[in-house]
Amino acid sequence: MNYVEALEWLYGLSARGVRLELDRMRGAVAERGHPESAVPVVHVAGTNGKGSVCAMVERALREAGYRTGRFASPHLHRFAERVSIGGAPLPESEVAERLSDIRQAMPALPPLTFFEVSALMAFEAFRDHQCDVAVVEVGLGGRLDATNVVRSPAVSVITRIAKDHTKILGDTLGAIAHEKAGILRPDVPAVIGAREPEARAAIEAELQRHGTDGWWIGEDFEGEAVLPDGPLPFDAPGRARLRVGEDTADFPLGLRGEFQAENAAIARAALERLAAGSFAIPSVAIREGLENVAWPGRLEVVRDGGRQVVFDCGHNPDGCEAFGAFLRRRERPGPVVLLFGAMADKDHAGMLAPFDDLVDQRIYAVPPMPRAPDDLSVFQTVRPGDVAPTVMEGLSRARAAAGERGTLLVAGSIFLVQAVRAAVLGLRSDPPIAM
Questions:
Q1: Model pTM greater than 0.90?
Q2: Which of 29, 102, 132, 173 has its Cβ near the most Cβ atoms within 10 Å?
Q3: Domain extent at residue 323
Q4: Same domain membership, residue 202 and residue 312
Q5: Is the preceding omega at residue 74 within 30 degrees of 0, hence cis?
Q6: Gyration radius (Cα) of the chain, Å
Q7: What is the CATH number of the domain that holds 391?
Q8: Does residue 28 form part of some domain?
Q9: CATH number for the domain including 99?
Q10: Same-domain check for residues 276 and 158
């Protein structure tokens, strides 16, 4: 199969849906020689922030001289972005070759889902490229996520806990945290970035059950944004004061947003726990990793003619609240226009409320996805706005409303961010393959 044919086959597996259990994945990795055990893993779960933490940890490990692998989901423009080696996505030819090999082996494997095949491909790539360490992001939950076949990670990380995917993970912070804490293992150091008492109680119960040593945000480590007085330009670099134990220092951050201070603290704590084990990670590598990290589509500021565009994939109320907090500290020359879209199963009111009093106009659009709302007036019932029939029409209207001196915010669904970012920056995305 070539790359497009491989994706057509892989995306066809999405018809099997989300089936959270580990028996299929355990059978698959056993049949394929246990690739998940070939490379030390930093395993990261959480509701928000896990992608940023993974990006920071991976970049710092690279700065320390390690050959890194990274598994992330979902991708922004190309499926190949999900698996990277040394900071670079797998070549499309290699993705096609690996998926073809797995497809040929499918008669001997359990009936794997889209995500399970993706994770299996990642583990095999890390093994075959002889990575020194892999940073693996949980897809959904943790306890029954396909990545949780990793039996003994080098360190387990849980980031911020918030309500998302409640129909699958539960509708309380305690229930959700219990699912995330399923990645914890006996005798494996853990770094916990959850602050909410209900979430912490659920995680603490799992730590005690495993006899696992946990480092907690607010106790063993901490992070706070360092901000000058007055509003900042949108593209101003970030800075954070990070403490691990008794050691406190200021760090420049490559990722924007005051909330990234917390993610940077989690990343630094995870790296310090690795350094206390078998990894040599100089302090300068942590500093350079946090400063040089990039994570497209996460409070990313670009120019579009004279206007500025801010992309953010905050796909739940907690993420949108973080975006709103960022906006309140920024200079807003000219009109501010929000181009927003979200899937039908999301909390639209919770996602739109954080932009109250921060935007001059709202325009709603979503790509044609199976999970998209049938009628975009569902957004208008929550907050007044203009409905566009297509994403490109929404972009055209948003550009006109922002003018040449204004600011365009693109937020909500990652599918919306992907489509608009590709159009604004002239990027190539994967061929549209229905999921």
A1: yes
A2: 29
A3: 298-425
A4: no
A5: yes
A6: 21
A7: 3.90.190.20
A8: yes
A9: 3.40.1190.10
A10: yes
Domain co-membership, 152 together with 279: yes
DSSP secondary-structure letter at 147? Answer: G
> Three-state secondary structure along 355-366?
HCCCCCEEEECC
Q: Do 222 and 266 share a domain, yes or no?
A: yes
Mean pLDDT of the chain: 94
* Assigned domain for 81 exists: yes
3-state secondary structure of 222: strand
Q: Name the burial class of residue 171, with classes exposed (0-12), middle (13-18) and buried (19+) by CB atoms within 10 angstroms of its CB.
A: exposed
Count: domains in the chain: 2
Domain assignment present for residue 431? The answer is no
Report the 10 Å Cβ neighbour count for 422. Answer: 15
- pLDDT confidence of residue 15: 73
Residue 378: exposure state from Cβ atoms within 10 A (0-12, 13-18, ≥19):
middle
C-alpha 108: how far from its chain's center? 32
pLDDT at residue 324, as a whole number: 94
Angle at which helix 50-63 crosses helix 260-275, to 10 degrees, equals 50
Q: Which residues of the chain have pLDDT under 70?
A: 17, 166, 431-435
* Confidence at residue 434, expressed as pLDDT on a 0 to 100 scale: 46
End-to-end CA distance of the chain: 19
With vertex at residue 415, the alpha carbon angle to CA 410 and CA 416, rounded to the nearest 5 degrees, is: 30
Confidence (pLDDT) at 166 = 67
Q: Are 202 and 226 in contact (CB under 8 A)?
A: no
Percentage of the chain exceeding pLDDT 90: 85
